[in-house]
Amino acid sequence: MTKEEIKIGIENALNEIRPFLESDGGNISLVDIIEDKHVKVRLEGACVACSVNQMTLKAGVETTIKKYVPQIETVENVA
User: Fold this and answer.
1) In angstroms, how far is CA 44 from the centroid of its own chain?
2) Which residues are in the NIF system FeS cluster assembly NifU C-terminal domain (predicted)?
3) Would you place residue 52 in the very low, low, confident or very high pLDDT band (cuts 50, 70, 90)?
4) What is the pLDDT of residue 71?
5) What is the domain extent for residue 65?
6) Contacts of 79 (CB under 8 A, 6+ apart)
7) Whose CA is closest to 14, among 50, 63, 53?
8) Which pLDDT does position 51 carry in this prediction?
9) How many structural domains compose the chain?
10) What pLDDT is stored for residue 54 in this prediction?
11) N or C: which end of the chain has fewer CB within 10 A?
12) Are 56 and 45 in contact (CB under 8 A)?
């Protein structure tokens, strides 16, 4: 995949996740893609202080991103 295809795949994954986060008062944005396999995102709104945001990040966000872009190895939340 090209860098642009990777970015589009990640954005498509985030668009799939976003309605669930928005329903709880949160959101997510793409911050960076490193070496085409490490993704940095920013949880926003209610997601910042949510006690289960790490579970959401791993079980929801990372799984969905990997469904769209299988070569992604890690997804990390940055403040």
Assistant:
1) 11
2) 10-76
3) confident
4) 97
5) 3-77
6) 42, 48
7) 63
8) 81
9) 1
10) 80
11) C
12) no
Q: Does residue 7 contact residue 33 with C-beta atoms inside 8 Å? A: yes
The pair of structure tokens assigned to 32 is: 């960076």
- Cα–Cα distance for residue pair 32/40, rounded to 1 Å: 5
Terminal C-alpha separation, the chain: 28
Q: SS3 letters for the chain?
A: CCHHHHHHHHHHHHHHHHHHHHHCCEEEEEEEEECCCEEEEEEEEHHHHCCCHHHHHHHHHHHHHHHHCCCCCEEEECC
Q: Residue 60's domain is classified under what CATH number?
A: 3.30.300.130
